[in-house]
User: Which sequence fits this backbone?
């Protein structure tokens, strides 16, 4: 992505990956307060969403760094800080 990635761009990338993996999901449910697990994503789905988002943003880091991420907003914030860190 560009040198300076906005938080909105990161949310858009995450949302694209969520809809790509959970194609039956109503897009209106993809809000920052939602947990991927609560949206029906199993552990493999969640890993695919995260790795797809990382790839789209050109990021690489150990998955264990995401241990405390509890919802989409926290994931977006984490990826945003990595993209701009």
Assistant:
């Amino acid at each position: 992505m560009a040198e300076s990635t906005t938080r909105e761009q990161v949310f858009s990338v995450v949302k694209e990956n969520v809809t790509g993996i959970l194609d039956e999901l109503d897009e209106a449910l993809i809000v920052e307060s939602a947990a991927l697990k609560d949206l029906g994503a199993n552990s493999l789905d969640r890993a695919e969403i995260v790795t797809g988002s990382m790839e789209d943003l050109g990021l690489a880091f150990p998955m264990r760094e995401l241990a405390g991420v509890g919802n989409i907003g926290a994931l977006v914030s984490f990826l945003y800080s990595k993209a701009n860190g």
